[in-house]
Amino acid sequence: MSSGAHFLNGGKSRTTERNYNWLVEGKIMEQKSSDFSAYLAYHVRSLNIVLESALKKKLKDTQLTSDAYYILVANWSKQSLTLHELSAYANLSIKQAERAVNTLFEMGLLKSTKNSNIASLGSYKLTKEGEALNSELLLKRELFLAKALKSTPEADIQTALSVLMKLQDNISGLSSDLS
Predict the structure, then answer these.
(1) Does one domain contain both 137 and 72?
(2) What is the 3 state secondary structure string of the chain?
(3) Which of 63, 108, 167, 171 has the maximal Cβ count within 10 Å?
(4) Is residue 168 part of a domain?
(5) Among 36, 57, 78, which residue terminates a domain?
(6) 11, 40, 57 - which closes a domain
(7) Across the strands, what pairs with 29?
């Protein structure tokens, strides 16, 4: 069992508020459903850390950073994008996207093209070397996701995705309230 907190099946209803049992450092603790949001946030963050760590290991032999990988994935599905579009599709800040684009330029995997409609607005496109890397990395990605989601019913995956997207929408709407 990994360290940290783990949800144990079988919460018991004693009142109108549901109670859950949690295992924290080997001790069962009872928490009310109102505490569930903190536990969810913990696991979302933990999952992100584990995914980033696994991605770095998978990319080790390619010399790509995870940000550069996300830029490549965005370009594979959309072909030619501006820096702002890359940033949005890869879910990176403009500064992160800019660094990743520079890394990909240096590696010869990405090139800049001018948009004929707006002279000052350039877009980025994969080079032949970038396209060649596509099949190798996409295969690694598919194998990784298959292992990560092994024995998880599709309905559970769809529910989790729906909940996470709703949370992201809700939190995005709160960002101005947090300052």
Answers:
(1) yes
(2) CCCCEEECCCCEECCCCEEEEEEECCEEEEEEHHHHHHHHHHHHHHHHHHHHHHHHHHHHHHCCCHHHHHHHHHHHHHCEECHHHHHHHHCCCHHHHHHHHHHHHHCCCEEEEECCCCCCCEEEEECHHHHHHHHHHHHHHHHHHHHHCCCCCHHHHHHHHHHHHHHHHHHHHHHHHHC
(3) 167
(4) no
(5) 57
(6) 57
(7) 22
Q: Directed axis angle between helix 66-78 and helix 36-59, to 10°?
A: 90
pLDDT of residue 60: 86
Q: Which residues pair with 23 in a beta bridge?
A: 6, 28
pLDDT band at 177; cut points 50, 70, 90: low
For residue 51, tell me if it sits in a domain.
Answer: yes
Structure tokens at 64: 């790509």
Rounded Cα distance between 125 and 109, Å, is 9
Looking from the CA of 71 toward its CB, the CA atoms found within 13 Å total: 33
Is residue 126 one of the residues assigned to a domain? yes
